[in-house]
C-alpha cells in the first residue's frame, strides 16, 4: 500500500475511485423519521489533506472498526464502541513510517476484527484481533514477500472465519479463507487472469461462509463471483457490464441470505449499482442525482439482513454523496454534516448493520477524512 491508504482502500475495497455512472432515472424517497448523524475523529488522526479517520465496518451492536492516518501519514487501527469510546491499536510488526502501519477492515458481532498491517519494508501481513485486544498475525501460503505484496484480510464473519486476498511474488491476486482454527484455504475464480494485477479478490463473507468477490481476467476486465462454504464457485456479470479493460462487475458485500451488492462499469465507463439475489436474479439501480458522464455514478457498498443497501454516488461535478436503498427499491440520498461540496469531496457510506445504522467517512473542504455514524 502506497501513499494515502484511505484512498487506496476506497479504490480497491470500497471502489470509490472505480466510479462508473448512472443512466436510469430515479426519484428520491424519504424514510420515516429523521436520521441522526454523529461525527467523530480517532485520537491522533492527522488534520491535513489526505489524513484523518476512515471507518470501514459497523457490527450489530454498533461497534465500528476502521483506520486513521496521522500527521506523518502512518496508519493506525481503531475500534469505536457503540458508546462512542475509541480504542486505537497497532498490530505487532507494523511499520511506523509514512504508508506503513495498521488497517482494520471488518468487525463481527463478537467484536473480533480482521485487517492488514504494512511493515517497514512495505509488505502486507494479515491479522485477527480478538474482542479482548489479543492480536494474531498470519500470512496466506504463497503470499509474496516483496514491497506491496502479501496478505490482506478484508472480511470476518460471525464465526471468526476470515476472507481476503493475497498478492504473490508475481503480483497476481489470489483469494483465501482462514478458518477460526487458523487453517487457510486459497482459491482462484475460474477465468481469473494470471498476469500482473490480475487474479481473485475475496471481499465479503457472510455467516454461512459464502464469499463474494471479484476477479480480473486476462483482458483486465472485472467479473463477479460467489464462493459457497463448500468451495463451489459461481461467476456472474451484471447486465450491461462492459468487457474491456477496467470495465465489468465488482461485488462488494454479501448478506446472510446470500444477496450481493456492488457496482458495474459499462462500456462507456459509467458506473451503476446492482443487487444480485441469492437466486441469481440481478437488479440494477441508480441513485437520484448521480452523474451520467464517465467515472461518475452509483455504487452499492454494503447490504444488511433486511436487504437495505448503503452506498455512494458521484454527481456530474464529481462530488460524493451517500444513499440508502430499501429492499423495496426506494432510495434516500444524504450527506454527512461538514462534508465538502467540491470535486472529490463529500460523503462515503461504507457499512450498514442490521439496525440500519450506517458508518462511513466524509471528506471536508480541506480534503480531510472524518468518521460518521448515521442512525435511522
Number of contiguous helices: 1
Poorly predicted runs are 1-31
What general form does the structure show?
globular
Rounded mean pLDDT score: 92
Q: Kindly report the name of the CATH homologous superfamily.
A: YVTN repeat-like/Quinoprotein amine dehydrogenase
CATH topology (fold) name: Methylamine Dehydrogenase, Chain H
Roughly how much helix do the residues carry, as a percent range? Answer: under 10%
Q: What is the rounded Rg? A: 18 Å
Overall structural class, as computed from helix and strand content, comes to mainly beta
- Structurally, the number of domains stands at 1
Please write the CATH class name: Mainly Beta
Give a written overview of the molecule.
There is one protein chain. 3% of the residues lie in helices and 43% in strands. The chain has one helix and 28 strands. Strand 18 and strand 19 form a beta hairpin. Strands 1-28-27-26 form a four-stranded antiparallel sheet, with no helix packed on it. Strands 2-3-4-5 form a four-stranded antiparallel sheet, with no helix packed on it. It has a four-stranded antiparallel sheet with strand order 6-7-8-9, with no helix packed on it. The protein is globular. It has a single domain, classed as 7 Propeller (Methylamine Dehydrogenase, Chain H), CATH 2.130.10.
Amino acid at each position: 500500500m502506497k501513499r494515502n491508504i484511505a484512498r487506496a482502500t476506497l479504490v480497491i475495497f470500497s471502489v470509490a475511485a472505480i466510479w462508473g455512472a448512472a443512466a436510469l432515472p430515479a426519484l428520491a424517497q424519504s424514510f420515516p423519521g429523521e436520521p441522526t448523524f454523529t461525527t467523530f475523529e480517532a485520537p491522533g488522526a492527522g488534520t491535513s489533506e489526505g489524513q484523518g479517520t476512515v471507518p470501514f465496518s459497523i457490527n450489530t451492536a454498533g461497534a465500528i472498526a476502521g483506520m486513521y492516518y496521522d500527521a506523518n501519514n502512518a496508519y493506525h487501527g481503531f475500534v469505536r464502541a457503540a458508546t462512542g469510546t475509541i480504542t486505537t491499536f497497532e498490530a505487532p510488526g507494523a511499520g511506523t513510517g509514512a504508508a506503513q502501519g495498521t488497517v482494520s477492515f471488518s468487525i463481527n458481532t463478537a467484536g473480533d476484527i480482521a485487517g492488514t498491517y504494512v511493515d517497514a519494508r512495505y509488505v502486507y501481513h494479515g491479522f485477527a484481533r480478538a474482542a479482548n485486544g489479543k492480536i494474531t498475525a498470519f500470512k496466506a501460503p504463497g503470499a509474496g514477500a516483496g514491497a506491496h505484496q502479501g496478505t490482506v484480510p478484508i472480511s470476518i464473519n460471525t464465526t471468526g472465519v476470515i476472507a481476503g486476498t493475497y498478492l504473490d511474488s508475481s503480483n497476481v491476486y489470489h483469494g483465501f479463507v482462514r478458518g477460526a482454527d487458523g487453517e487457510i484455504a486459497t482459491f482462484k475464480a475460474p477465468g481469473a487472469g494470471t498476469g500482473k494485477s490480475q487474479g481473485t479478490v475475496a471481499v465479503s463473507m457472510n455467516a454461512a461462509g459464502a464469499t463474494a468477490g471479484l476477479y480480473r481476467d486476462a483482458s483486465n476486465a472485472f467479473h463477479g463471483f460467489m464462493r459457497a462454504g463448500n468451495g463451489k464457485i459461481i461467476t456472474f456479470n451484471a447486465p450491461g457490464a462492459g468487457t474491456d479493460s477496467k470495465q465489468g462487475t465488482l461485488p462488494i458485500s454479501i448478506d446472510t441470505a446470500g444477496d450481493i451488492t456492488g457496482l458495474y462499469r459499462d462500456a462507456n465507463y459509467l458506473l451503476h449499482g446492482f443487487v444480485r439475489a441469492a437466486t441469481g436474479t440481478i437488479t440494477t439501480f441508480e441513485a437520484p442525482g448521480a452523474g451520467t458522464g464517465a467515472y461518475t455514478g452509483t455504487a452499492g457498498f454494503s447490504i444488511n439482513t433486511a436487504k437495505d443497501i448503503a452506498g455512494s454516488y458521484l454527481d456530474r461535478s464529481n462530488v460524493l454523496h451517500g444513499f440508502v436503498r430499501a429492499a423495496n427499491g426506494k432510495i434516500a440520498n444524504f450527506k454527512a454534516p461538514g462534508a465538502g461540496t467540491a470535486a472529490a469531496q463529500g460523503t462515503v457510506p461504507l457499512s450498514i448493520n442490521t439496525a440500519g445504522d450506517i458508518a462511513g467517512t466524509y471528506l471536508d473542504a480541506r480534503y480531510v477524512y472524518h468518521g460518521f455514524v448515521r442512525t435511522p
